[in-house]
Amino acid sequence: MKSAVVLLPGLNRDRDMIAALTKIGGKPPVTVWQTDTEIPDVDLIVIPGGFSYGDYLRCGAIAARMPVMRAVAEKAAQGVKVMGVCNGFQILLEAGLLPGALMRNASLKFVCREVKLEVANAATAFTSGYQQGQVIRCPVAHHDGNYFADTDTLARIEGNGQVVFRYADGTNPNGSINDIAGIVNDAGNVLGLMPHPENLIEAAHGGSDGRALFESVLGVAA
Amino acid sequence: MTISNTVSITDELIAAHGLKPDEYQRILKLIGREPTYTELGIFSAMWNEHCSYKSSKKWLRTLPTSGPCVIQGPGENAGVVDIGDGQAVVFKMESHNHPSYIEPYQGAATGVGGILRDVFTMGARPVATMNALRFGEPEHAKTRHLVSGVVSGVGGYGNAFGVPTVGGEVQFDARYNDNCLVNAFAAGLADADAIFYSKAEGVGLPVVYLGAKTGRDGVGGATMASAEFDDSIDEKRPTVQVGDPFTEKCLLEACLELMASGAVIAIQDMGAAGLTCSAVEMGAKGDLGIRLDLDKVPVREERMSAYEMMLSESQERMLMVLRPEQEKEAEAIFHKWGLDFAIVGETTDDLRFRVFHQGDEVANLPIKELGDEAPEYDRPWVEPAAPAALERTDVPDMDVAEALVKLLGTPNISSRRWVWEQYDTLIQGNSLQLPGGDAGVIRVEGHATKALAFSSDVNPRYCEADPFEGGKQAVAECWRNLTATGALPLAATDNLNFGNPERPEIMGQLVHAIKGIGEACRALDFPIVSGNVSLYNETNGQGILPTPTIGGVGLIDDWSKMARVRFAAENEEIFLVGGPRELGTHLGQSAYLRDLHGRNEGPAPHVDLAHEKAVGDFVRGLIRSGIATAVHDCSDGGLGVAIAEMAIASGIGATVDLADDCDAVAALFGEDQGRYVVTMSKDSAAALAAANGVNIVRIGTTGGSSLKLGRARAIPVVELKEAHEGWFPTFMG
Amino acid sequence: MIKARVTVTLKNGVLDPQGKAIEGALDALGFNGVGSVRQGKVFDLELDTADKAQAEIEINAMCEKLLANTVIENYQVEII
Amino acid sequence: MIKARVTVTLKNGVLDPQGKAIEGALDALGFNGVGSVRQGKVFDLELDTADKAQAEIEINAMCEKLLANTVIENYQVEII
Ligand SMILES: Nc1ncnc2c1ncn2[C@@H]1O[C@H](COP(=O)(O)OP(=O)(O)O)[C@@H](O)[C@H]1O
Ligand SMILES: [Mg+2]
Hints:
CATH superfamily of chain A: Class I glutamine amidotransferase (GATase) domain
Number of strands of chain C: 3
CATH class of chain A: Alpha Beta
Number of domains of chain C: 1
Largest sheet of chain A: 9 strands, mixed
Radius of gyration of chain A: 16 Å
Number of helices of chain C: 2
Oligomer: heterotetramer
Bound molecules: adenosine-5'-diphosphate, magnesium ion
Helix content of chain A: 10-25%
Strand order of the largest sheet of chain A: 2-1-3-4-11-10-9-6-7
CATH architecture of chain A: 3-Layer(aba) Sandwich
CATH superfamily of chain C: Phosphoribosylformylglycinamidine synthase subunit PurS
Helix content of chain C: 25-40%
Number of helices of chain A: 6
CATH topology of chain A: Rossmann fold
């Protein structure tokens, strides 16, 4: 399976993400730059975490309007899988590829710690390697992960099973509504999540709960 | 309309530049005429304490700075140390004390930015940072504001830049009430044969300006960093610099890309006194002159004078000498990253520093002498007075269980989780030990087993009581913290924070601390490869505690054998390695005495360096051979706090046996040096062979859910944890 | 040259963690009787044009495309 | 109840990385001729009082103590 990683100035978990895709998928992803207007033929496009454009204005706002994101939107519309982690999630929201918004953490502080995640929908292309309702460990590291959607939107995504990950066991680190940590779009091919599965994939990380996500989406056996 | 570059040079103006009358005479003699206004600014920047080290140079020269693994010692942007396999670790620590007091968020942020720049200027990709922070007493009206601002500033910059914070220190003491300390450490990795230096080579080559535009930020900043505070502090405020981590991240990527292209001959970041210091240093080191044309400098404010451009401390800027044939390639890289790129001058063969603005020559100075002829002082100093001896009978006794729970919840011993959870500790995916242990550890990317350990240490109360022993102790503790993970300590950086060196008693502290540091570094094979001096840390005549922070780096060959603080399992044997027969004895300047009884009394603990080395080498051997299952050194709060921290980190309790006639307070809370708590399985314990001269005492067993110290009440681990974790969040609200 | 100020505020009903925190902090500082705080942004722009009407059209477009996230924010343009 | 708007802007000469990034983004989106962008904050407050003069004094105090960082920012209070 072929994957691509979107590079934008200010992203900084790109190397972590490339390492995870390479280690788990067996080959390195191609990379595309902010000004690229076309994305090669791949099965998965990943927007990694960081602070694109310094997170100035709003997290992900400037990145979402760069040429490469138009290309990502086209691919998404064609059914290519797209995954945004942390800043990548914020960018997908700002680009309108996912519903809702991510606000400043309720504590107003940046938070980096391990949390528990409940796999709220194991029937997506991204989560098939987990059991429905399984609780996994995963680190978070963000300042703006407080998911918000208006009542109608919220009812809709909850009703459709679009909420894929929820903070579990009282570990919600940011005040996110309904403990939402990750969602997919209507069609199920675009995932955004705040936690960093790419930082929990091997012994050196002290655990590998994040691996199944990559295994699912890359179609590699565990 | 042209911008005026002329101001008449008056005595007041000279004094306002921090130049003493005899220093001004020296300038007159050196150049044979009255300096221009811009030249006066250049001299003030080059000759102030911050850039010239005029009070400390004589003593810094006494430090050991070489060793088999040292590739580059002090004198460059950062030290460079060989870690084998063709790789090197590049690191340094630097203070941003005064700016952080004035504007905590931006002061701390730009401090982190500055030290990161020092590291990647040398061609290294930053892989770890630490921050050593000292604040006034918690009750002081400004403390919370400073803690909150500094911590979010450190995080705001480092998190966005994308480097993990792996350790640091936070302490509170009334002596920092009006003068907080922010010492930032950064380390990077580079190929040992691809290190970049500031020495320019070749005549007629382009001097290139890169990065962000120049504004009026921090004009006079380097002068401020060396000036004592007084009540007119408000007037100094507009010199605040604002950090832009986004630009710095782009600058990092652009610089590394450019370095890989082979276009860079010399590179120097613009730190204190920006364009002035960087240009002079590049020329002087290469025995070349530099000619600058300020009309080419990218500016973001209107009508900037030559003086302002030469002294601006706008952040995220670099100066380079490039191979002319690769100019276009270099420019393309910088534009790709959205950064400014301008040729602002050239190297010359006349050994002059010549600066032009609007067609006028605003400075023409001998470039070597600007640095070499800076004043150097042998300031008078007095021998620090030794504190009165402390009799054991003069130390109040206390129930040890109660004392331990209280100590764990004091401002200086409680957990710093509130702080480090605001820092990205995981980014880059190589963090093996997060803050909270003895040292932060990251694996060396691309290598199967190698890892680097980092620790930052000093106990200012010890330094106040005895600067010599305190200096030794800071080095020893840092070395010990690295050792406790199984790392072989390689080299260190020092950040010497002191009061006004023009006062002989302060100068005495500085001299003795440096002597102590030097002695310890020699004994422990732990050379100093970079550092920074911050003097004049005082307000209205009250100096800070002498605070020589030591940041150390160690190498772990195989991280799968690395030791951690947390107990590994139940039912293991606990040993105290390197302690006296009584386990602990020294209560002078201890946390027990200070934080539970409000008394800063007695001598600082003595560090026996030969003992320190023998014990450390023995413990490292236990770790590397896989015998030790958990290791923690004893520092503030002694054996009691060390064991409690091991229990808290694991959730496993322990039983510590104390002889009936034992002095439990001294045994548990004495701060004798050179001690480690080590656990191992019963089988290993049975086979444990004593090392030459290292005292090993079996003190107990792990297991259960409480900590039982001799005959004192068993304290549930959850209670210990609550005390330890509770203070900081409660304090910050 | 035309100067303009754009003010971007959160829509009603959108959670404002920063405003909430400020309410709490003001209260802790002894400022009682602060009913609610909502935080927004201002952008002061300088445009190289003399045509006010045209500028206003342009700035509205900037808001729609970038300056405001119209999912959660309202904006208001004022030529100074 | 009194409503007020506090506007906090960066002092002249203080670097505004956000403003700069927005300038770049507007340019990339094809909005040329934007000379400069400076970003600031607004706070919309509701105070449980009817005394305008008193409210103004209070709000100024809030700015000094919390809402503005007077080292690098200016503020402006407007009772609506
Ligand atoms: N400002 C900080 N940033 C990150 N980690 C910190 C900070 N302050 C303290 N720590 C971490 O907290 C732990 C305890 O600190 P300290 O008591 O100074 O350790 P030690 O006594 O082993 O030197 C260490 O792991 C240290 O790295
Ligand atoms: Mg330690």
